[in-house]
Amino acid sequence: MAATLSLEPAGRSCWDEPLRIAVRGLTPEQPVTLRTALSDEKAVLFRAHARYRADAGGELDLARAPALGGSFAGLEPMGLLWALEPDRPLWRLLKRDVQTPFVLELEVLDGHEPDGGRLLARAVHERHFLPPGVRRVPVRAGRVRATLFLPLEPGPYPGIIDLFGVGGGLLEYRASLLAGKGFAVMALAYYNYDDLPKGMDTMRMEYFEEAVNYLLSHPEVKGPGIGLFGISKGGELGLAMASFLKGITAAVIINGSVAAVGGTIYYKDESVPPVSILKDRVKMTKDGLMDIVDGLQSPLVESKSFIPVERSDTTFLFLVSQDDHNWKSEFYANEASKRLQAHGKEKPQIICYAEAGHYIEPPYFPLCKAGIHLLVSANITFGGEPKAHAMAQVDVWQQLQAFFHKQLGDKN
User: Fold this and answer.
1) How many other CB atoms are found less than 10 A from the CB of residue 217?
2) Minimal CA–CA distance to 314: which of 224, 249, 238, 230?
């Protein structure tokens, strides 16, 4: 009997959906190696493998069988995705075109040699970023450059603005996946895209205000306020938006800064200057990477750089990686919380993830442990341990959905 590789769902699934992987038709207790490969949009190959042993009936179900080594070990049903590593060093897996899937190749090889065994079975599976029925609407309204994702049925839905970090451009994959959960989500570009400014030395809140007003006035978005979802620089800007602008009910800040970093934040006649960079506190790792976690002055020392969060009436959820080496995300979240409470505002919820690194992505994205930082113009360590980071990403995805459903309600 020939071995067969089965995947549920079969053929295709959304990127944030778990996959059930099983092999049947093996001999009892047969040693096998499972391999995965995925090519990104720049043709960089990501690969993972793990060694297993079939059960007494010649079956292998990754939901029940622990990996015996390889790219990971132990009971990890989705390890063959989150443990993917690029052939090109310091390369981050990104999805730039959400209208096409990533194609995942899976192979079952005889024995425990990842490159030597006879091929027993093979399958190809599409991992999609545009959930069934979700509508993608490019936005060019006034100065606003964005893409709006709307669920299948006509709304109105709770609205969310999604902000990414340094690097600019327009990344849509979080917004598209989140729209599949019953939200109207706008992926917002703010620099280095189309006719927007090329750099980020000046951030004007009026641009973001225009985006908030656009979303609030959209016929498929329900009021009275919207949600914000930002990571890294996007988290910093999310805090600034919630501090200076009206109409923001709820904000999820993932590894954001409570200080302006790398550029001045302006709103009308007010400004928040960036904190100083302390080059003498930057260290080098044994791998020759920069560790910049201590490289910014504290906003407690340079108080003019502290974003005035005490003005905000937004309900916050801070999601914090405790092994973030980009900057001191846990310190920033705690200081924001102290400042809010000192001014009689609601204490925000802070959820911390041990051994998670800076780039928290939707579930099953592999950890980007190190790479180029455009502000520093060098390769830095972002921190994180692959398994703990993978578990954090799954939890973050659940936490932020539950938070937004609670704070913004559901479809009318």
Assistant:
1) 10
2) 249
CA dihedral (257, 259, 263, 269) positive or negative = positive
Supply the residues annotated as catalytic.
232, 324, 358
What is the four-CA torsion angle of 105, 108, 109, 114, rounded to 10 degrees? 50
Distance CA 217, CA 209 (A): 12
Question: Among positive and negative, which fits the CA dihedral 315, 321, 326, 332?
Answer: positive
- As given in the structure block, the two tokens for residue 253 are 């800040």
Q: Identify the H or E element spanning 267.
A: strand 264-267
Q: Characterise 398 by phi-psi region: left (phi > 0), alpha (psi -120 to 50), beta (else).
A: alpha
Eight-state DSSP code of residue 21: E
Cα–Cα distance measured from residue 213 to residue 188, given in angstroms and rounded to the nearest whole number:
13
Check if the beta carbon of residue 248 is closer than 8 Å to that of residue 228: yes
Is this prediction's pTM over 0.70?
yes
pLDDT in tens, the chain (412 residues): 799 999 999 999 999 999 999 999 999 999 999 999 999 999 999 999 999 999 999 999 999 999 999 999 999 999 999 999 999 999 999 999 999 999 999 999 999 987 879 999 999 999 999 999 999 999 999 999 999 999 998 889 999 999 999 989 999 999 999 999 999 999 999 999 999 999 999 999 999 999 999 999 999 999 999 999 999 999 999 999 999 999 999 999 999 999 999 999 999 999 999 999 999 999 999 999 999 999 999 999 999 999 999 999 999 999 999 999 999 999 999 999 999 999 999 999 999 999 999 999 999 999 999 999 888 889 999 999 999 999 999 999 999 999 999 999 988 6
Distance CA 166, CA 398 (A): 25
Question: What single letter denotes the amino acid at residue 109?
Answer: L
